[in-house]
DNA sequence: GTTTATTTCGTGTACGTACACATAATAAAC
DNA sequence: GTTTATTATGTGTACGTACACGAAATAAAC
């Protein structure tokens, strides 16, 4: 009684009931031409009646068409090596899915050049991939792009930062607000009553400030939620050369003698570490991201804490989610927040990205 | 250039290089007898060299062995209809995976009877399924069982409550502590300075208190974290008949005139609602779980808030995670917390479980 | 009517693996 | 040596679907 005997499975059963061959059934399943309206209707009815669900494993195995997943992330810039980790995550996923006849097409844009982003999205759109993963750095342009994807039923997932309201398959990345909140929590343990914080948003790119702001919000919220009346000096630095940063920091420090801790809202924290060294100031330094420059400063004792959210894992999961959705049509969580990890010089060796 | 011509894929390529047939390769892949040590070694070397990864889709398709996933949850009791939702989730997952030759074997135990739990675990262990999903209500017994599973490399996932330290494939369920924390957050908005809370743990089963306690911890933590000095009267009620509950509540209310809100740490909240009605007391009532009894009380205005964490979804995800792990050996998140939803009479109609 | 074009349908092979069965090689027994 | 048991290896078919190709049925052209 392992299998009910009369019950052929899938296509064959449909074919039997309709008195046609599986070839014909196949044609109506894929809306291909070459079948008379009459039999087409009959078969469609049977498909509906049986609530036929194709065997996706068999389908993928038999299909010779390769599935294309496009990924769009920034190039690894001189500014920060951050994006090398997501790239590795993409490649790890690629290695896993390529045996199922899936190709991962990697596109890159220049974080400083909006046009390059647009150009790449255009290029992607031209090849009409089966799924897209992207870091939506340029919000408006990304929105326009994903809108077009939606119209063609091309699923897309965001990584690293989210655009709400777009019906993305998933967002996989940090919970920006919470990570700021956590940073503040750390700070509250460290600082005494009379000491204050310097908060630095370092970014040449205005559009990035949206993300940094979410972190700042969370950071501030912690103090409000816990009725801690902590002074926060905030400085936006629009240039990322060392000289400019150094000048701004020096200015803030002389103006606010009570600053004993600096919170940098992104991966540029190692630059700040260098500046402090130059200025011969020893302050607590908290920043973001497990990248080479930062690790070095961490080991040297110039950075105290790094907050990190597994960027490699993000990209890996993004590609795998697309694969699972497209090939296995599994349900995918709309929001996949990464854990918020705290890295110090004591535990960095064990961190798996 | 779509496919490199020389490169046969998988087993065939291995067979070619070893000058054997795919049958022989197949035998060493599955450690089956009937192949000489010499060729076995040769083939193993080639497998390693090629870093051969079997095509899991093809494997599942070709394999005639059915995969068994066992699920172990409480029967739907007279006490609460809670477990009917996870059961539906299981059945939904079953419908999805059965076409891949996977059987879901459903086992049930009596929440009031430890022996029944043990008996069912024994029964499951006897058939040696390929994966197990269970609600580990009886901690010690569940631990013993999952230890045995670990030894046989049978993956298992916990739902509804976790046992830490067991190397479960995943825990899928509520974040108990956080849900208590959230409840407290709600409470802090509602209560005035001079008003206090009654916290009720209603459970005949002592072993359940562990879980209730986690919620209570979170609940209390909120007030501490926010330096709110709120009076919390706590009562453990070990019987779940209406009369006992009513007596306890009445006692507490007369002793503490300032109680204006009751927080019930599990689904028994509708019983409390009935008691309050009987006592002709109108208090704010917060409790757990989207079950029929509670919804009714919610609609009638006798319960104000229900905290819910998609129990059906939990079970569904648990089975699907096992499937993905066993069949597709996908990586599965060790912790899959459900969102903490707040249900009121205004939004309950839209709640999807 | 026959021939030809066109539409409609069936058949065969492939995907990569599993497994039952058949065959070949070797060892054991005489 | 031959026969027989044993071990080692190869072959064929199946899983459920996709798709190319060919055959049959029908329609169009004369």
Q: What report would you give on this structure?
A:
Two copies of one chain form a homodimer. With 353 residues, chain A is α/β, with parallel strands linked by helices. Chain A folds into three domains: 44 residues, 434 Repressor (Amino-terminal Domain) (Orthogonal Bundle), CATH 1.10.260; 134 residues, Response regulator (Rossmann fold, 3-Layer(aba) Sandwich), CATH 3.40.50; 133 residues, 3-Layer(aba) Sandwich (Rossmann fold). Chain A contains 13 helices and twelve strands. In chain A, strands 2-1-3-4-5-11 form a six-stranded parallel β-sheet, with helices on both faces. A six-stranded mixed β-sheet of chain A has the order 7-6-8-9-10-12, with helices on both faces. In chain A, strand 9, helix 12 and strand 10 form a beta-alpha-beta unit. The longest helix of chain A has 18 residues. The N terminus of chain A is likely disordered. The first copy, chain A, binds a DNA duplex (30 and 30 nucleotides) through helix 2 and helix 4.
